[in-house]
Specification:
This protein is of the alpha+beta class. The chain is built from 18 helices and 15 strands. The strands form five sheets. Strands 6-7-8-14-10 form a five-stranded antiparallel β-sheet, with no helix packed on it. Helix 5 packs antiparallel against helix 6. The protein is globular and about 70 Å long. The two termini are about 40 Å apart.
């Protein structure tokens, strides 16, 4: 976990963008897969049947019970066993933003389904933590007692007290960030799970109202958080951040007006930042508002939004060394903000640079810096350089992502990873026993914490792979969350999409009124990358009229274009208002029919459906190639 750290969060929004190439050198898709897997190691609660990190087991099963509320689930923030609400919500916001921007690249690499599961594991918990409109639980466990012990999460004997905010003990920063997470996630699930998306948006509305109506810093109410996640920036940045996400999720003019009317007084147009993270969100707000300006949505607020825009560009210019005040870098070229978990700043800033580069490309603009105009590709090249450093292109030739490459940290500051799995040796490990028997061991961790991005090197590119070196060897969920989007972008190249297209209104209701006539029979490609090994083609094969209503029969052909066999196929189908034949329904997706276990190379399967509307939206969620 980490202590008093402030960052500035930049979050570029919706839809994928374009540069006419993909990058080579590192296997970004493999790194993406591992980065998502890390979140499964951080899970608290009852682990699902499809849990892939096999050395973990159930934990925290009585969380919230003493307070009369179910708080089982969620994520442990880092190498400890505490659930801190502020960094957890920021993690979910950034995972959601990554999917919003680069979900199609994730789908092409077969990781979108896993990414959606990672977000939902977090939002399911946040829903539980918000049992009433003006009540939000912001922490389970206590950092002081937790740090006194070194135990597997499955063996926890530390205090699991639940801490909340309410009108008498407010926390606008915590409620605002949680509103942002819910709003961003509602966009993610809009098509694949519209009912869940609507539920998330309802919570986001309530949380924003709570945050705005009852103002105060959350760590003044949940004082046990001060030593670990103090809100140094206050709450104005979170209120603007939440408003920006709520506008993206709802298209409600109220939130656009909130950004316009409060931009100056709340610091959105005033703070010129060189950092972004779980505490300080100004750079993220400025990036989102700059996008709205590029989209032509500013309206009467254009002068104010232009000031947000200027501050966003200040941040971008500082990253590439062409601003009036630039970020510090190590001799090896890595952004350096602080010794304690520096890589959190690197991944967050690099994500903002990535999306802003794509926004500029969509608007055919250039970055205006003190040193002159800069092409959008330079921002993307910068982000790539930071990711490549993390993956091993650095003076030590060390990968700071566990399990990626041949030289990565072996002694991670992480309780679960450093102690033998309870499935291997179920003997109970007491509070202090873990320090005596496991913490001080010089051997490598018995459990590989695949995908974890650790704190990283110091200002001179030095790194000590020692378990007690928590400043450098401890991972955190918010290190990985922004990285998902960058890796998907670098691995998938541009998607050929204009990332300034208008935000779609969330959760459309099923069409039951007079449908528009279906188009003439034609092939409709799936909205995944053209490089995807799986293609989808739809065509209307019949139509008829019954009692004044026109019905259409659609044939959909799924083809394996690869040279391997497709297994574990998951297909997302939305805007379907009638019966379907030829696929098996599983939870929120569809898979192979019962008579088919795989799809060999070059082979196709066909399914059909009937309804009185235009073609359903069909896309690939996940698959494995064997």
């Amino acid at each position: 976990m980490e202590k008093l750290m402030r960052l500035i969060s930049m979050a570029p929004l919706l839809l994928l963008l374009s540069l006419p190439f993909a990058f080579a050198g590192h296997d970004y898709n493999q790194a993406l897969s591992k980065s998502i897997l890390f979140f499964e190691a951080q899970r608290s609660g009852y682990l699902p049947h499809n849990q892939r990190v096999g050395w973990r087991s159930n934990s925290g099963l009585n969380d919230g019970k003493a307070s009369g509320v179910d708080l089982v689930g969620g994520y442990y923030d880092a190498g400890d066993n505490v659930k801190f609400g502020l960094p957890m919500a920021f993690t979910i916001t950034m995972m959601s933003w990554s999917i919003i921007e680069y979900g199609k690249q994730m789908a092409a690499s077969g990781e979108l389904g896993h990414a959606l599961e990672a977000v939902k594991w977090g939002t399911d918990y946040l829903i539980k933590a918000h049992p009433e409109p003006y009540v939000l639980y912001g922490e389970v466990g206590d950092g002081n007692s937790d740090h006194y012990c070194w135990q597997r999460p499955e063996d926890m004997t530390t205090d699991r007290h639940a801490y909340k905010i309410d009108p008498s003990n407010p926390g606008s920063d915590l409620a605002g960030e949680t509103a942002a997470a819910m709003a961003a996630a509602s966009i993610v699930f809009r098509r694949s799970n519209p009912v869940y998306s609507s539920e998330l948006l309802r919570h986001a509305y309530q949380l924003f109202e709570f945050a705005d109506k009852y103002r105060g810093k959350y760590d003044s109410s949940i004082t046990v958080a001060q030593k670990y996640y103090r809100s140094i920036s206050g709450y104005n940045d979170e209120l603007l951040w939440a408003a920006a996400w709520l506008y993206q999720a709802s298209n409600n003019q109220y939130y656009l007006n909130y950004l316009g009317k409060n931009g100056d007084s709340m610091g959105g147009t005033g703070w010129a930042m060189t950092e972004f993270g779980w505490d300080v969100k100004y750079a993220g707000v400025q990036t989102l508002v700059a996008k709205l300006l590029m989209q032509g949505k500013a309206g009467l607020h254009a002068p104010v939004f232009e000031r947000y825009h200027q501050k966003a560009e200040y941040f971008m210019c500082s990253l590439i060394g062409k601003g009036s005040r630039n970020v510090q870098k190590t001799p090896g070229g890595l952004i350096f903000r602080q010794r304690w978990n520096n890589l959190q700043f690197v991944t967050s800033a690099s994500f903002l640079a990535t999306v802003y580069s794509d926004y500029l490309t969509s608007s055919r603009g250039r970055l205006k810096c003190a040193a002159g105009n800069v092409a959008p590709s330079e921002l993307l090249s910068f982000a790539k350089s930071q990711v490549d450093y993390i993956l091993g292109d650095n003076p030590r030739a060390t990968s700071y992502m566990v399990g990626y490459g041949n030289n990565y940290p072996q002694r991670v500051h992480h309780r679960g990873s450093s102690i033998v799995s309870i499935k291997v040796n179920p003997t109970f490990i007491a509070c202090r026993q873990g320090y005596a028997n496991w913490y001080t061991r010089k051997a490598s961790d018995p459990n590989l914490l695949t995908g974890a991005v650790v704190g990283g090197p110091d200002a001179y590119d030095n790194f000590a792979d020692e378990r007690d070196n928590y400043e450098q060897t401890e991972p955190a969920t918010y290190n990985n969350a922004p990285l998902l989007g960058i890796l998907a972008r670098l691995g998938g190249g541009h998607g050929g999409y204009n990332q300034l297209l208008p935000v779609v209104v969330p959760a459309p209701n099923p069409v039951v009124a007079k449908p528009k006539p279906a188009p003439k029979p034609k092939l409709t490609p799936t909205p995944v990358s053209s490089s995807s090994p799986i293609s989808i083609e739809q065509k209307m094969t019949a139509s008829w009229n019954d009692k004044g209503k026109t019905y259409y029969r659609y044939s959909t052909v799924v083809t394996n274009k690869s040279y391997k066999t497709v297994k574990d196929l998951k297909i997302s189908i939305s805007k379907l208002y009638g019966p379907l034949w030829g696929l098996a329904k599983t939870a929120n997706s569809y898979g192979f029919p019962t008579w088919l276990k795989s799809l060999p190379a070059g082979k196709s399967l066909e399914f059909v459906y009937i309804h009185s509307a235009s073609p359903a939206d069909v896309s690939i969620l996940n698959y494995n190639l064997a």
